[in-house]
Design goal:
Chain lengths: 426, 519
């Protein structure tokens, strides 16, 4: 009896672990299957469409470069949401923090155009991280000290950030500062960041940033002395350098990978992550263990905001080099499904960011070749989210789990019947 | 006597658990039938099958000679079966009458007919000697009266069989006696009662026949007159029980904890602890007896820093720790075993290892500069699992997959492995089976023998009596008296628990003179 129950416990644990991987995979596969039917109804071949989608995402160096570009901000926002969620802070405000991070990067690059790359780029990255953190400060304070629901506050902070940017990018008087109560507000305070708009352009957008602020590409790194002296003679090296797409692959996705490792480390190998997860699981039990729940929540929120801010910085420095309205549609909000499909694990977030990035990168090619509209990828994406989230409550595959669910629902029904006896009046 | 209910070969399984097997049970009309067994013996599951909460996998339920299938509680109620759950199903803001008719059609649909109902209730209460005011609101009533409302609900629905699930768990000794009176008068009117319990004295007090369950099976059904508590205990656990833990006489050492005029509020903001004072020395267990909800939990919380004191002082080894943070108090070598291991004692989604380092993770050698030292932690965790006999396939298992007893061992390992000077144990054996209970108690006495001071809070009087060197009794937030643990007068303690007697600190002198051996 004892060994039997022991084995059963191991088996349950094993199932639980394998489910964390199988659920998102099954969810994505079912999303593709059902979207395939939609494509079929459209009159196209789903296989051809998915083939084009895949080759548009991974089929060529250029495709891979695009996928990497698209997935980079999602890695950061996905990590931001995952870390926050694990720590009991559901950060819906990654979008706003991303905007503020991007604005900070742009402001930095425009304000200090003369700095050398080696100083300017880290400065811009740090600025974006810092502003992301600043933007979550108020919700973090309200949540941890006043118990105000962070979903509401972070969500509303998004609109402030987005409208702030819209205002910045539409105000014309470039060199004039703002005066308030008779005094001029210093240029460096973030209410007075007017001047990032490009006045020469008819459309609202910021000036193109100086090239020294561009995130270095792999190509420019490989052209450095070290690599030339090592591999200068090989044909592969020459071919690599002559591939134009290579110039579009920047350090940004690799910094994303670094962030994944770092967050994994913080989450599971440090006392900070331990406290965050403890509070996220059960704040009351954490308090009984001597953990300062308020401070921990606050720290968790700041880490989350910092990551989301970095997402904006990476996009500006690595890909677009300027900001325009709607410059990165929904990347902040998409951090939520990225994190959830990734089972709130840093590595999972990385994988699901890859999936999301690939969908976007391949969508155009799919539309051009098979005339299946781009919108289909949003159907796939949405279905995957729905399935992944429902998958966490309804486990598929195991009879054992099925049985358990059946029993639990049965119990629930019975309990409801008992209560129904109370509430069913006539 | 005629047979009312007969269960034949009832079997109920949950995935991985055989809850009931081959259970035969006969309930006669007009008897009080005890269903005795340890926690997890399958008593409640069996009754839930009868009440329609579960459906048995196989077996027959025969009601008044006819086989019946009970799909849901409504069927059971229609047959004439009523059940009073451990946690009452009452709506607090409604009156007694409103609660009683809830769910039943009124005679003047669509309007309520409360006046007539109140009259009927008064008649019923008179008939059975239940003293309940039908116009009172539930939240105003003491627990004992709320329980009577539950019984009244069943009677109003013409119940012929009443199932009571551990009805005395929430009652004071006086209320228990009143309940027993009510039960006796009910059976005189021809009702049958199934009384679920794990308390042997209650069986001997009030029941006519006893069925003992162990591991889901019936061990035996006997008439009360033909048995005794000792035999019942043996049937219940399958072996002789030695709940009296061996405890050498020790001379209490220096004062570890000193509480002076401490007061605190409960979660509703009402005074819960009122001017409480006591001291605990090394090698000493101070047991706090009292009915649940008389400020014991709040007292433990205040000492551990989980709750703010409104006045008074808590002094640990000479330094004032009143209202310090929980972490600061942990650092004073204080361990706290919280009353609810599922919600406050453990992080169920954390692994055993993560739980085990819960009180020490922040300091070397477990972490250095905020980074965990995996090797040290794993060694510590394996050792703790070995030392505290936690039955688990591995240290990386999530705590929620362990049984209650093993979960409590994890809490013990976490709290006691650091050799604390002061141990606050709040309901340390609640919900545990006898084996685990014995283990926990032995560990606590070990801590005492090693030189720790223990504050033991328990609503199980038997636990306080068998472990404590001194016993304090709490009633409505006040300490009614502190008496020596040895040869404590159980009636006196019972009266203090009920708030009718106050003796002060009878052990005050024994504590002050260390040369005198405390016996």
């Amino acid at each position: 009896m004892k060994t039997e129950s022991k084995l059963r416990t191991i088996w349950r644990e094993y199932l639980e672990r394998s489910f964390t991987i199988t659920i998102p995979v099954l969810a994505i596969l079912s999303a593709f299957a059902i979207s395939g039917l939609i494509i079929l109804a459209w009159g196209s071949s789903p296989f051809a469409a998915y083939g084009a989608l895949f080759s548009g995402a991974f089929g060529s160096p250029a495709a891979i470069a695009t996928t990497l570009q698209r997935m980079t901000p999602l890695i950061f926002t996905g990590l931001a949401v995952a870390y926050g969620y694990r720590g009991g802070f559901f950060n819906i405000g990654a979008e706003g923090q991303l905007y503020m991070g991007a604005i900070a990067s742009v402001w930095c690059a425009i304000t200090f155009p003369t700095l050398p790359s080696i100083v300017l780029i880290p400065l811009c990255v740090l600025a974006s991280a810092f502003m992301g953190m600043m933007w979550v400060l108020l919700p973090a304070y309200l949540k941890s000290r006043r118990g105000i629901n962070e979903v509401l506050t972070t969500l509303l902070m998004n609109y402030i950030a987005i409208q702030y940017f819209e205002w910045l990018v539409r105000v014309d008087h470039i060199q004039e500062g703002i005066t308030l109560f008779g005094g001029e507000i210093p240029k460096w305070t973030f209410i007075n960041w007017i001047g990032i708009k490009d006045a020469t352009q008819p459309h609202p957008k910021t000036a193109l940033l100086v090239e020294t602020s561009f995130m270095p590409s792999l190509k420019s790194l490989f052209e450095g002395k070290l690599f030339t002296s090592l591999f200068g003679g090989t044909a592969f090296y020459q071919e690599l350098l002559s591939t134009p797409a290579f110039g579009r692959i920047t350090l940004a996705p690799f910094l994303g990978l670094l962030a994944v490792i770092l967050i994994y480390f913080i989450m599971f190998k440090t006392t900070t992550g331990y406290r965050s997860r403890a509070v996220g699981i059960n704040p009351e039990a954490a308090r009984f263990m001597g953990i300062n729940v308020k401070n921990t929540l606050f720290t968790t929120a700041l880490i989350s905001g910092t990551l989301a801010g970095l997402a904006g910085g990476m996009e500006v420095l690595g890909t677009q080099h300027r900001m325009i309205p709607n410059f990165l549609v929904n990347a902040g909000f998409d951090g939520i499904p990225v994190a959830l499909i990734g089972q709130l694990h840093p590595v999972g977030a990385f994988l699901s960011a890859t999936f999301f990035g690939a969908l976007r990168a391949g969508a155009n090619k799919m539309q051009v070749i098979t005339s299946v509209p781009v919108a289909v990828v949003y159907i796939i994406q949405s279905l995957a989210i729905v399935f992944a989230i429902s998958g966490t409550t309804v486990d598929i595959g195991s009879t054992l789990k099925k049985k358990r669910i059946a029993r639990e629902t049965d119990e629930k029904k019975k309990l409801m019947a008992v209560e129904g006896e109370v509430s069913n009046a006539s | 006597m005629t047979e009312l209910l007969r269960l034949e070969k009832i079997r109920k399984t949950f995935p991985g658990v055989l809850a009931n097997d081959n259970v035969d049970l006969v309930i006669e009309q007009g008897e009080i039938h005890a269903l005795l067994g340890e926690n997890g013996a399958g008593k409640t599951t069996l009754m839930n099958c009868v009440y329609g909460v579960y459906r048995p996998d196989s077996g027959k339920i025969i009601w008044k000679g006819k086989e019946v299938t009970i799909h849901q509680a409504r069927d059971a109620i229609a047959l004439g079966i009523g059940m009073v759950h451990q946690h009452f199903k009452l709506v607090p803001p409604l009156t007694v009458a409103e609660n009683v008719v809830l769910g039943l059609p009124s005679k003047r649909e669509p309007f309520l007919d409360l006046v007539a109902v109140e009259k009927e209730i008064l008649e019923t209460t008179k008939r059975y000697g239940l003293d309940v005011d039908p116009k009172a609101q539930i939240w105003q009533l003491p627990v004992g009266v709320q329980q009577r409302v539950e019984i009244l609900k069943a009677l109003y629905r013409q119940a012929e069989l009443l199932i009571l699930d551990e009805p005395t768990a929430v009652l004071t000794p006086g209320e228990v006696e009143e309940l027993f009176e009510v039960l006796r008068s009910l059976t005189k009117q021809g009702l049958s009662i199934i009384f679920i319990t794990h308390k042997l004295e209650e069986v001997m007090d009030v029941c006519d026949r006893v069925t003992v369950l162990r591991d889901g099976c019936v061990v035996h059904t006997v008439n009360k007159t033909e048995t005794n508590t000792r035999e019942l205990a043996r049937m219940m656990v399958g072996r002789e029980v030695f709940l009296k833990v061996d405890k050498p006489d020790l001379i209490p050492g220096e004062v570890v904890l000193e509480v002076q005029d401490l007061s605190a509020l409960d979660n509703r903001g009402l005074p819960a602890v009122k001017n409480v004072s006591f001291t605990i020395r090394r090698n000493e267990i101070l047991g706090v007896a009292g009915v649940d909800g008389n400020g014991q939990t709040e007292l433990a919380d205040v000492i551990a820093g989980m709750r703010k004191a409104t006045s008074g002082k808590v002094v640990i080894r000479g330094s004032d720790v009143t209202n310090l943070s929980p972490l600061d108090i942990i650092k004073k070598s204080v361990a706290y075993i919280p009353p609810d291991r599922q919600h406050t004692g453990l992080l169920l989604d954390f692994t055993l290892t993560e739980n085990l380092i819960g009180k020490s993770y922040y300091r070397p050698p477990f972490s250095k500069h905020g980074v965990f030292q995996k090797k040290v932690i794993n060694e510590f965790s394996s050792k703790a699992i070995r030392d505290y006999d936690v039955r688990t396939p591995g240290p990386e298992l999530k705590a929620k997959l362990l049984s209650g007893g093993n979960q409590q061992k994890v809490v013990l390992a976490r709290e006691l492995s650091g050799q604390p000077d002061l141990v606050i144990a709040s309901q340390p054996t609640r919900g545990l089976d006898i084996g685990a209970t014995e283990y926990v108690r032995t560990r606590m006495v070990e801590a005492r023998n090693r030189g720790a001071a223990l504050l033991l809070i328990s609503t199980e009087l038997e636990e306080v009596l068998s472990l404590s060197d001194r016993i304090a009794v709490m009633y409505e937030g006040e300490i009614m008296g502190i008496v020596p643990g040895k040869d404590a007068d159980i009636h006196e303690i019972g009266e203090m628990m009920a708030g009718v007697r106050r003796v002060g600190d009878r052990t005050a002198n024994a504590g002050k003179t260390e040369v005198v051996k405390v016996s």
